[in-house]
Amino acid sequence: MAYPVVERPKHFKTGIVGGAGYTGAELVRLLSIHPEVSLEFVTSEQYRGQNLADVHPHLSELTSLELIGAEQALEKDVDCVFLALPHGVSQKYAAAFLEKNIHVIDLSGDFRLRDGATYQKWYGREHGAAHLLDEAVYGLPELYRNAVRHARLVANPGCYPTASILALWPLIREELIETHSIIIDAKSGVTGAGATPRAHTHFPRVTGNFSAYGIATHRHTPEIEQALSQNDRQPVVQFTPHLLPVDRGILATIYATPKGSWHPELVNEVFARAYFNEQFVRVMKQPPEMKQVRGSNYCDLHARYDERTGRIIIVSVIDNLVKGAAGQAIQNMNILFRLKENCGLRQLPVYP
Amino acid sequence: MAYPVVERPKHFKTGIVGGAGYTGAELVRLLSIHPEVSLEFVTSEQYRGQNLADVHPHLSELTSLELIGAEQALEKDVDCVFLALPHGVSQKYAAAFLEKNIHVIDLSGDFRLRDGATYQKWYGREHGAAHLLDEAVYGLPELYRNAVRHARLVANPGCYPTASILALWPLIREELIETHSIIIDAKSGVTGAGATPRAHTHFPRVTGNFSAYGIATHRHTPEIEQALSQNDRQPVVQFTPHLLPVDRGILATIYATPKGSWHPELVNEVFARAYFNEQFVRVMKQPPEMKQVRGSNYCDLHARYDERTGRIIIVSVIDNLVKGAAGQAIQNMNILFRLKENCGLRQLPVYP
Amino acid sequence: MAYPVVERPKHFKTGIVGGAGYTGAELVRLLSIHPEVSLEFVTSEQYRGQNLADVHPHLSELTSLELIGAEQALEKDVDCVFLALPHGVSQKYAAAFLEKNIHVIDLSGDFRLRDGATYQKWYGREHGAAHLLDEAVYGLPELYRNAVRHARLVANPGCYPTASILALWPLIREELIETHSIIIDAKSGVTGAGATPRAHTHFPRVTGNFSAYGIATHRHTPEIEQALSQNDRQPVVQFTPHLLPVDRGILATIYATPKGSWHPELVNEVFARAYFNEQFVRVMKQPPEMKQVRGSNYCDLHARYDERTGRIIIVSVIDNLVKGAAGQAIQNMNILFRLKENCGLRQLPVYP
Amino acid sequence: MAYPVVERPKHFKTGIVGGAGYTGAELVRLLSIHPEVSLEFVTSEQYRGQNLADVHPHLSELTSLELIGAEQALEKDVDCVFLALPHGVSQKYAAAFLEKNIHVIDLSGDFRLRDGATYQKWYGREHGAAHLLDEAVYGLPELYRNAVRHARLVANPGCYPTASILALWPLIREELIETHSIIIDAKSGVTGAGATPRAHTHFPRVTGNFSAYGIATHRHTPEIEQALSQNDRQPVVQFTPHLLPVDRGILATIYATPKGSWHPELVNEVFARAYFNEQFVRVMKQPPEMKQVRGSNYCDLHARYDERTGRIIIVSVIDNLVKGAAGQAIQNMNILFRLKENCGLRQLPVYP
Q: Which residue among B267, C139, C194, D336 is least crowded, i.e. fewest CB within 10 A of its CB?
C-alpha cells in the first residue's frame, strides 16, 4: 500500500528493493517528503512480513508499511525501483525489473564499471549480468546529466567516487593536471561500511580511533579512474580510504600536480566555472568541514594552489548516505522523471 | 530581503532575532522549507552586516541573507518574530515587537515562569518585563494548544521540560502518581549549552566523558513543576541534568510511584489515551534511543511499570534543538497562524 | 613462557583464562607492569596457537606470548588464575583450578550471588557449580577485605555493582537511608557489553546516541541488593542501566531518602569517615566526571543532600574495565598475596 | 615539596614549568610513577597558590602539590625542568634555567628550528632567544640520541613531526625516495590544539565532524623538512593537518615516490633495519589503528609499496600527548640522566 502522509496525488510511483540497510532507510526518509513521488513498497528478505517501523524505529510514523519479499515487488506497478542491495545481489534483480519497463536505479557497485574484466579484477568474481554493463549509465548528474535522462538502468555512484570525482572533474576536463599525480586521501564515517555489525565496526574499537584500510586495493579506485578518463586516457589514482569515528560523512583531501605554469587564482576560477549552475555543489572560500553537509545532498568543495610545493589541494565533503547514496539516487530519479533536480531534496544540512 | 528559494507566495512573514547561535540557525534550517511562511530577516549584533552563510557555512545556500541589527528588525513588517536570544536578553525586546502587533515566540527562559518571584529565585535576578508574565502562554502545544492559538507572546518551553513534561503529563492529569516521588534523571547533548565555547564544552573534555551538573539547582526545575501543577498543587521534582558526549538530543529517565493499586498494562493505556491524536508524540513499545528523533520534531516515549519495586519508569527522547527549541517554536507558530500543526515539520529523523 | 619484560624475579605466578576479550586484555596490560607477579599464560579457545599480539595489536610488545587452550592452563604451575570468561563458562573451570590449590579470581557473574535460586531467577539457568557459591568471597575489598584475604575463590564484582555499592555503603552501614528508596540510574561505556559485535553495539548506532536497556531486569540488581543487605534485611533497588557513546567508564547517579532528620554537612562526614583509609576511593568536593578515572583503579564519589526535596544524590564514577573488572581483580590478588593493595595499580588516570 | 608516593630515594629531581595545560598534566601523570625521578614543583601563573588537584581533578591523589609561580621555580634545586609553555613563552624562561646549570627540555616550538629566519617566517615573529638555537638539540631520540645525551637544552619535537619523521627517516637516510614527492596527510585529536576553549574546539562543532586546517601553512612543515634534510639537501614536504573528533592520537598517512627500481619486500626490510633496536617504535605487519598506542610512548608504523601506482604509503600512529609530547620528553630526560630509555615509560596502551 502507498505511503499515506501526503494526500495530494503523486505523479510517479517508486519502490525500494532492500530496505533493511542504511541506504534503504535513507531512501524512505527522503522519499517520504518528496512531493511528486509515492513509495509503493519496501522489500526485505530478512524482515519480510514485519513492519518497516519495527526494523527502523526512527521511521515509526510509517506504520502501515509492511516489508515484502523481492519477488512480490516484481508484481507491483511502479515507474522506478531503487535497488539498495549488497554488491553482487543487485545484478540478480536488475534485469527482471527492466523487462517490466521499470526504471532501475542501482545503489550497489554492480553496474558502475563499464568493463566486465575490470569488475572481475577488483570485485573478485565474474559479473552475473555483464550484458547490462553497456547500457548502464553512471549516475553522477553533474557529469552525465543527459545520459541519465534517457537511461533505463542508472548505476548510482559510490560514496568515495562522488566526493572524489566532483573534486577533480573541473581540473581534468580542462586538462590542467598531471593525471598520474592524483592522490586521494579519503575519510569516511562508519555507515559507509553498512548496517551489519563486524569486529572493525564495533563501537569500542571505532570510537576515539582512526585507521586506514584497503590501501592500494579499494574497489572505488577503478570507478574513480573510469570517470576521470578523457579521450581514452585513464589516470592512475592513488586512493586511500580511512575510517572515521563518525556515523555519516566523507571528507576527501586530494593532491594533484598542475601541468605547466600556474597561478593561485586560477584554481578558483576553474571551480566556479565548472559548478556555476549546479544546485548541489557549493564551491567554498574556506575548506569545508565534513558535518556542514550532514543530512543534505550537497557536495562542498574548496581548492587551493600551494605555490611552495607546486601542488593543488582540494577538500571535498559529502554526506555518504545522501549525495553519496540515497540523495543522489533521488536526484537521478528526478532527472529521469523530468522533475526539478532538487525536488524533495531541498532540506538544508542538520548542523551541528 | 526574503529568502528566495520557494517561488510561490507565502502567506505569512517571519523574522529571527538572534541568528548567531544554534537555535537561530535551526530556525533558519526549518523555515527555509516551510511552505507557508517566509523568512524576512535574521539579526545578530555580533555579526551584523555579514552574510548569514559566513557565520553558518552549512546554510551557504542562502547567500542573499545579510544579518541586520535588532533595531532594524523592529522596522520590518512581519507577522511573527522568533526571539532566539540568551536568557535575560529576550525580556528587553519582547515588548517592542508586541507593541507593533507582531506575535512573539520567545525561545529563552524569560517568559516561562508565571511568577516573577520564582524567576528571581532560580535565575538570580529581577525580571525586566514582569508585566508580560501574565500574558505569556507556555508553548507546549500538547498541553496548551488552545491558549497558544490566542497568544500574542508564546514562551517556548525549555528542552529538558519538553521531554520531562510530555513524559509525566499523562500520569499527572489522571492523578495516578505521587507527585512528590518524581525523579527526572535527564541527559543532554552539548548544543543545549549553547554555541559559546567554555571549559566544560571543550571537545577534549567532553568526548569519552559524561557528567552530572546543576544537581538540585537547575533552572528547568521550576518550569517542570509549574507545568505539572494540578488544582493549585505543585509537585516537588528531583531534577538532575547530565552532559552527554553528543551534539544533539535529550533522553530523560523518569521515576515515579503510582498511587494505590496498579497493574502493568495500565501504563500503556494511559499513554495511548493521552497522545492518540498527537502528531509529534510517538508512544513506543520499546524504550526509544535518543538518536531516533535526530533532526525531527518528535518526542518518543516509553513507559513501564516495575512490579518488583512498585515504580513507573518512563523514557523520553527529543532532539533538543527541534522539539526542544526551534521545531516546537514553529509548531507554535503554525498554531498561531491556523496552519496545519505539522506544516514544514514533516521531515523524518536523520538516522543513524 | 613467562612474560619477559621485568628482569628481577617475581614472587608470584599468575595466568589468565580467557584472553580474547576486553577484560583479559586489560589484565595483561596491568599485570605487564606489576612488580611482584609474573604472567605465565593466557588462554583462548578461539585463538589458541596465535600470538597474543595478533589478537590485541596494542599489546604487540609481548611478542613471545602464545595463546594456549584452557586445558593446557590446568597443567601450569601458578599461584592464581583470573577467569575472564563469559557468564556461565567460568563455573565450568573454577573447580578444576581450585582442586590444584590454585587461587581463582573469577571476573564473570557466576559466583557473585550467594544463593543458587537467585542466580537461576536472574540469569535464567541453573547454576553448574552451586556447591562453590558458599565458599566464594565477593571481592569488593573496601567492604570485604578480610574475607578476600583468606579466600580460595574470589567473585570479582560487576562493574555497575562496584560503582553503586561503593556509593551507597557508607549510608547503608550507618543505617541512614530508607533502603526501599534507592534508585540507581547508571550509565556505562560500551566495553561493558563485551568484545563481540552486535547490532546494539554497532558504531553507527551507538555514536551520537544514548539509550536505556534492561529496565527492571538487569542481572546486576540482585548483586547490588545482596551487598547492601544489613542484618538480613535486603533493600529493593531500582536499577536502570544506560549505554553511553563512550568506550570506557561508568557513572551512576543515585537517589535515596534519608531516615529522620538530616543536615547537609552530614553527608560529607559520612563519606569521609567511610573512605578515609581507602587508596582507591576518592571522595570529591565536586561531582566527578566519568573520564577523570580512565585507565585507573579509582572510584571517585560525590554526595549531596538536597534540602528542597529531602533526598541524597550521589555521583559515582569508575573505569568499568579497571576498578569495574581487571584492576579490582588485581587489587584482590594483591590482598590474597599479602602485597600492598596498590601494588602495580598506581597509574594515574589517562586524561583527557 | 616533593611528590610523596614512592618512598625510596630518587636519583634526580625535576620540575614542570606550565602545569595548567594538557602537556603539563601528562608530564605529572608519567613522572608520578617514574622510579628514579622526583617531581619537585609544578608552576602555573594562572592558578598559582591553588592545588594541582583542583586544576586537574584526575590527579587528585597528589593533594600536597601546590602550584607555584615560575619565578619561584627558578629558586628550586632541580636537575632538569620541563617547559610546558605556549610557543613564544618558553624562549623567555629557557636561558634563566640554563644559567643555573639546570637541563631544560622545552616542549614548545621555540627551539626546534635551527635557523632564526625560518622561525620568523613560519611563526610570524622574531625569536626572543635566538642565541640558544645553535645549542638546542632536536630531541627525537631515534635520530639524535647521542646529541641528546650531551645536551643542555633539548627541543622536544612537535607531535606531527614525531609521527612524520619516524615514518620517513628509514627511507630518507638510505636515499630511497624522491624527497620532493613527500605528501603527509596527517590527522590529530583535539588535545593537540591545547586546553584553551575556542570556537573550532567547541564540542558540538567537532563531534561527528572532520576538517582540514592550516593547508600549506602549518608550522610543523619546516620542522619536518629540517629533520629530513640530508647532506644539506632539504626536502619540500606537502603537509596537511586535519582535526579528528578524538581526544588523543595522531595518524599520518604518508605518500612518497621511490627512486629507481623497487620491489615490494624492500620496504619492510628498510623499516625493520631502521628500528630493530628501538623500544618505542613498533613496525607492524598491518596498518596500525590510532588508538592502539593510546596512553603509551609507542610509535607504530606500517609501510607498503603499491606496485600499481609506484608509490610507497606509510601509516604512522602516536599518542600526541605521550610520544608526541610528555612521553618523549621523559625519554629525552632518561637519556640525559643515563637512565634506561624506557624507565617510567613501560605502560602499555590503554585500549580500547
A: C194
